[in-house]
Design a protein that fits this description.
Length: about 300
């Protein structure tokens, strides 16, 4: 199972994190928002030396835009075209710099928010990153998603990477009656998903119309990747111990995400999915980090 495990490197190449977190036989590293070119070269050389793959959480290089994510579904046509152009430019760079195995983008972006929900505790960097469902008709969502999928399928084949869409906050266009996303995933089967366990749990605690387990059940089979971490949310809604490594003793009755439930569903549908440990490992001991890796292996195998 560990041949499908990854760690994250965000902002630059952290030598200490690499030496501590990267286990023997791991698949690779997911990189995002590197500040300096020498760190990208360091990552490339390390991947050659230690024979691992690199995935990119777009963008690899920081500073190309005031917001991180590409706004592929923006209502404003100029903003939307800028998003495609920005991604194209980054892909041209990646093709010569590191040849990633996958490139990940958030979807939908902008996020389409359910009007009835209080989103005050959801973090957005910029107002351009979201729009309310009442202002964004499902027909537009379908039309712009179809264009995006066609483009990603073509560009992924051309540049030889797997396009991965990480599900962001979700409304009914994705979660309930509509089969728009599933039909697109079946039509363009080279495009895969990423499920983020922390984000799914946060939305379930914020949004009374959202069922994280149902989303995992529906979409785990299409996943290339799981972003795995946990957190504790108090009754007040305040988040505690975010990006925490998943461990079997962290009890959902105390506000922790129900990771065991999530991983059992994922393991049933997609036991060979890649797992990117999106945690801050400095919060636990070496022994606890090893226990985290072992527990995830067991859950995917169905042996616990």
């Amino acid at each position: 199972m560990r041949h499908n495990f990854l760690i994250g490197q965000y902002g630059g190449f952290n030598e200490a994190k690499y030496r501590r977190d990267f286990g023997e036989g791991f698949y690779g590293i997911e990189a995002c928002l590197f500040q300096q070119e020498p760190d990208i070269e360091r990552l490339r050389l390390q991947s050659k030396q230690d024979d691992f793959r690199i995935g990119v959480h777009f963008p690899l290089r920081a500073g190309s835009s005031r917001v991180r994510d590409a706004l592929f579904l923006a209502k404003d046509e100029a903003v939307r075209q800028q998003a495609f152009a920005r991604v194209q430019q980054e892909l041209d760079y990646l093709a010569t710099a590191i040849q990633p195995s996958y490139v990940l983008f958030h979807y939908p972006k902008p996020v389409i928010l359910e009007d009835r929900v209080n989103w005050g505790r959801w973090h957005f960097e910029d107002p351009s990153e979201y729009v309310f469902e009442s202002e964004y008709p499902v027909e537009l969502f379908q039309e712009r998603s179809e264009v995006l999928f066609e483009w990603l399928a073509r560009i992924g084949q051309e540049y030889k990477f797997v396009p991965v869409l990480e599900l962001d906050a979700l409304n009914g266009y994705v979660t309930t009656k509509r089969d728009i996303l599933e039909r697109l995933l079946m039509k363009h089967n080279t495009i895969k998903l990423c499920l983020d366990t922390a984000r799914l749990y946060i939305q379930e605690r914020i949004d009374p119309y959202f069922d994280a387990r149902a989303v995992i059940e529906r979409y785990a089979g299409y996943a290339e990747l799981i972003h795995l971490s946990t957190l504790r949310i108090e009754e007040s809604g305040e988040r505690k111990q975010t990006r925490y490594p998943v461990l079997p003793h962290l009890d959902p009755s105390e506000g922790w995400a129900p990771i065991e439930d999530y991983m059992r569903i994922i393991g049933r549908h997609n036991p060979n999915v890649k797992i990117m440990f999106e945690h801050r490992s400095e919060q636990v001991s070496d022994e606890e980090l090893a226990a985290c890796y072992s527990w995830v292996e067991e859950l995917l195998r169905g042996s616990v």
